[in-house]
UniProtKB/TrEMBL annotation:
This is Amino acid transporter. It is found in: Cell membrane. Its main location: membrane. It comes from Actinocrispum wychmicini. It is a multi-pass membrane protein. Keywords: Cell membrane, Membrane, Transmembrane, Transmembrane helix. InterPro entries: AA/rel_permease1 (IPR002293), APC_superfamily (IPR050367).
Amino acid sequence: MTTSPAGDGQLRRGVLGTGSLVFMVVAAAAPLTVMAGVAPLAIMIGGIGAPAGYLAAGAVLTVFAVAFTRMTRHVGSVGAFYAYIAKGLGKAWGLAAALLALVSYNALQIGVYGLLAAQAQATLADVFGVNVPWPVIALVAVALVLVVAWLGIDVGAKVLGVLLVLESGILLLMAIGVLTHGGASGLDAKSYTPAAAFGPGMGAAMSFCFGAFIGFESTVLYRREARDPERTIPRATYFAAGFMAIFYSFIVWSVIQAVGSEHAVAAAGDDIAGLFFTAIGTYVGPWASTLMHLLVISSVYASQLAFHNAITRYTYALARDGVLPAWMGKVHPRFRSPVRASVVQTVLAVVVIGAFAIAGADPYTRLLLGVNTPGVVGVVVLQTLTAIATVVYFLRRNKAASTSTAVAAGIVSTVLLTVATYLLVDNVGLLTNTTATVNVLLVSVVPVTLLAGGLVALWLRSRRPATYARIGEDAVVSEGVSV
């Protein structure tokens, strides 16, 4: 293992292997949460073809990953989407993407504190008979995220690895229980027939399927901390996308078998929040249902930690490029974590949670759905822009490195992700459950943020050309590392 010398402002080098990267990005997707909390909606809206939808979403994102990871060796920055888009589409688009990434990932991370608080509050009341105000739970979670992030990425990866194994294990336990008992009325493969996969409502359900993969692309954020990044990052990206596609599809299929293919849509509609808990309670035992409730909380916490790490790497990259204040790019002298970026993100989370608490807003319907939705849309838009950037990069900016595979993957993923973006925006009401006016306002956050980022880039080009030239390059900053 290699580490950077003290005083160079660098993150810790060579501490993440392929497995650690997979834990980081799959944990961000929160498999247990998206299965127990969202998959029943996909079944209710898309029918029993939902398992095929998760496979299709995974296939699209795997094609995207082919183009995405082919650029890895040509991008030195830890800025992920920011750096890739800057390389392909130019620095103005790169900075616009950077601002959108910061807004999107913060929206995802902070909004989900509402889900964590709501889930933990209900679980503590039901299991232990303890009533704790949701803001208290949310703020405790914020503190726990900061502590683990402060201790360094290697500690965070170990924590995420344990939590991911636990949440995946409880879902597998449910599936095994269903398979062992033969389901409600025998096992079948109707979910994978063309009639089910292309049935009415599947277009809308695909928005949930794509949303379940949010975070898988963040492998490249850990380029500087990965061992042999040209090999480990592509491997981790492919494995994460493939694992989630197969795992999600299998788990959703198993819960459909738990109630029977003929009754799955009605069962999901009648018990959206409890479908998975009822299934594991029936086929494994009541104790397993209680354990699943507890692990949902740890699943959301793991997601929070993973997204926090992603946000701080974006902040770190922008600070080193001179776009954000240089002090945000300083790292801890011992743990080599971007501690100042962590503190800034933590303060922002506390302010937003405090504002919603003072307003008396519901943590689920307001903090989660209201804040989280622009983040989901923003990340899918960033994926689409990155796919476009790979095509432009290999065809116009670096023809010598171009391959037919990379270009074809970029073109195909651009088309497919554009369709996915349209489906997500067109069906955003399914995510928010609010009025059309509010939906328009939430979605408009994405283009407004891109516009603002582009305007800042143009200002930098005319007023601070040296800073503009550094966008997406991760130029070395020569500050100390005191915190």
